Amino acid sequence: MKPDTAPPSKIRVPATNPRKHPTALVLQGGGALGAYQAGVYQAMHENDLIPDWVVGTSIGAINAGIIAGNPVKDRIARLRAFWERVSHPDAIDMKQVLDPARRANTWLATADAVTQGVSGFFSPRPFNSFAAGIAVAPENASFYDTHPLAETLAELIDFTYLHGPHGSRLTVNALKVTSGQLVSFDSQKQPIGIEHIMASGALPPGLPPVRIDGELYWDGGLYSNTPLETVLNDQPPTDRLCFMVDLWNAVGPEPTTLDEVQTRQKDVMFASRSARHIENYLRLHRLQTMIRALYDELPANLKGSAGRQALQEVGCSTTIHVVRIPYAGQDWHMAAKDINFSRGSIEWRWEQGYKDASRAIRQAGWLDAVADGVGVVVHELVPEPAARPTFA
Q1: For the segment 217-250, what is each residue's pLDDT rounded down to a tens digit?
Q2: How far is CA 293 from CA 296, 298, 316, 370, 374, in A?
Q3: Which residues of the chain fall below pLDDT 70?
Q4: How far is CA 225 from CA 98, 328, 348, 352, in A?
Q5: Could you tell me the pTM of the whole model?
Q6: CA-to-CA separations, 337 to 34, 264, 265, 362, in angstroms, rounded
Q7: What is the pLDDT of residues 348-391, one digit of tens each?
Q8: Cα–Cα separations (whole angstroms), residue 170 to 65, 230, 382
Q9: CA-CA distance, 234 to 225, in Å (whole number)?
Q10: Per-residue pLDDT at 9
């Protein structure tokens, strides 16, 4: 999964976080596109931007669990082990052929994932009554069985380390099937196990729901695929540096074919709603700032301990820097890009995530001065001068 040549980020960027702000990494769902997230983490890792909090949904929850649930020195190797295990061997060297051959290879890999499953992730259910329209136990209501994933997570995540004094905070989001409520499972509040991570990635009808404490859960991406709001709503508020990885693009051309329509539909469904979350957060932040200013104007004899306590709970003067890193691969406008586990595609996405995050770190916009009272600063990745390749 390593890039072929040593990219510029191999030269360590000094003082990437001189103010020692807590660092969060937010990972959304996107199936096989999640290899891009692993590349982003590798660049952060090599530049001393080790997240103290990893928040994930679906494939993002799996990557997040592997990152948070291992000592820092082991994280890249464990991520690589996961993505090598789930990738589909290619019949050709994807770097040595032209786009038509690459595209044919990805279709073969995708067809194999649909018919045979993905090694270490999911496998077809033999003689599946659910697929025939017959009622089954709720935990079996899916086309595929995810026991292979449970075995993979048990091998690659050290849950003892995760809940120990050196483990990073881990939050994974899942949807309660019977109420449609989004639930955040947070290692600061409860023990996180394999079942919580699998619940976050239980996308129906392909993958089965997971039962936790008597309740069934589906993929959290059905409600909100980018868990940025989990970071924005965290209490108590604190200055924070947050890297957010977007795998889907809400903006795109008008589709003209069935495949393009289905691709655009997926992109719109699962694209980040971060702009809306940030707008809502800023509205609340402005209100909190006004409350703080009004309290400061009160005479001293009207300021009491109760007021100070309320100010701590409501008033807010913190700033969150959000570094947005978008996946720019076009995947030939392929609707099934999230189940394209071709090894060449996986390696390419990892490499692109590594390169894009390295550029974002070199730009380091969060080091610039920020005016007082600014609640959120979004740092967009400056586009490269040349067009990005579409091989994926």
Answers
A1: 999 999 998 899 999 889 888 899 999 999 998 8
A2: 5, 9, 10, 19, 14
A3: 1-14, 302, 305-316, 385-392
A4: 34, 18, 23, 21
A5: 0.90
A6: 11, 12, 13, 30
A7: 999 999 999 999 999 999 999 888 778 889 999 987 766 555 56
A8: 7, 11, 29
A9: 18
A10: 43
In this predicted structure, what is the pLDDT of residue 307?
65
Element of type H or E holding 42: helix 35-46
CA dihedral 69, 208, 205, 132 (to 10 degrees): 150
Neighbours of 364 (CB within 10 A): 16
- How big is the chain by its Cα radius of gyration, in Å? 22
- Contacts (Cβ under 8 Å, ≥6 apart) of 366: 241, 321, 323, 377, 379
DSSP of 107-162, one letter per residue?
HHHHHHHHHH-BTTTBEEPTT-TGGGT----GGG-SSEE-HHHHHHHHHH--HHHH
Neighbours of 289 (CB within 10 A): 17
Report the half-sphere exposure of 270 (CA within 13 A, side-chain side).
27
CA–CA gap between residue 114 and residue 134 (Å, rounded): 21
Torsion of CA 169, 174, 178, 179, to 10 degrees: 70
Q: Is the dihedral of CA 202, 220, 22, 17 positive or negative?
A: positive
Nearest CA to 41 out of 83, 4, 5 is that of 83
In whole angstroms, what is the distance from residue 342 CA to residue 151 CA?
A: 22
Q: Which amino acid is present at 249?
A: N
> In angstroms, rounded to a whole number, what is the distance separating the alpha carbons of residues 247 and 328?
8
329/353 Cα distance (integer angstroms): 10
CA-to-CA separations, 358 to 9, 323, 382, in angstroms, rounded: 5, 12, 12
